[in-house]
Amino acid sequence: MNKKKYIFLLIFLISLLFFLNYNFLNSSLEKFLLTETEIVNRIVDGDTIVLENKERVRLLGIDAPERGEKYFKESSKFLEDLILNESVNLEFTKRKYDKYGRLLAYIHLRGKNINLEMVKNGFANYYSYDGKDHYHDQFIKAWDKCLEQGKYLCETSKNPCARCIEIKEIDSGKGLIAFYNRCSFLCDLSNWELRNEGRKNYFFPNFSLQPKQEFKIIFGEGLDSNSELYWEGENFVWARTGDTLFLRDKENKLVLWKFINY
Fold first, then answer.
1. Dihedral sign, Cα of residue 240, residue 246, residue 247, residue 251
2. Which residues are catalytic?
3. Entry pTM
């Protein structure tokens, strides 16, 4: 083989190798550029931390109880025990900061995704901040594990009416949710709470639902309903990228939950 043919063959092999490994190299470079290592200086709550460089970080994919809410102390303490004063790896998405100037990140330590650990152990709900990402399926599995354990935010209601109330209809376009009492006895739903993945919630008024009766909540103004029992809920916003609804009794125990894909 003469020298010129050898050079052409070498160029061809190098080009082929680059082409075959381009996606791998590209994803590896992107991952490198979207990660950094920092020391955790303070825990604000179960989904917010402060780094040694004074930057605040909002943990992606989760929403934990805030101060004054049930399990706030437990959630904060669990996160503190996991990562306080530790050197952690921060994994960013393409949107690095939220509107409050906080870093948005997944926290990794010793091979564990800490965000997933918060959900799996019942200290946070899954919260698809910007819609589904590559951790979505893992968060679903973490939530399923949480439900199996039935602890903290995943503790199921012992109220007899918890097995009676079901969702009959969801219309995200109209902002409507219809509930139904399938049991043969009266259910007092006073102060039950409907919450989405984020911070939006709605507390039921003082009322009891008759057997085999339906009621609707309509989030918005000026909407008509043919139901004999309905309310217009305020300050409850549907996430445009999909959402999860959680219904809890007055003791904050889980009655039901439902993923909504738009």
1. negative
2. 58, 66, 102
3. 0.78
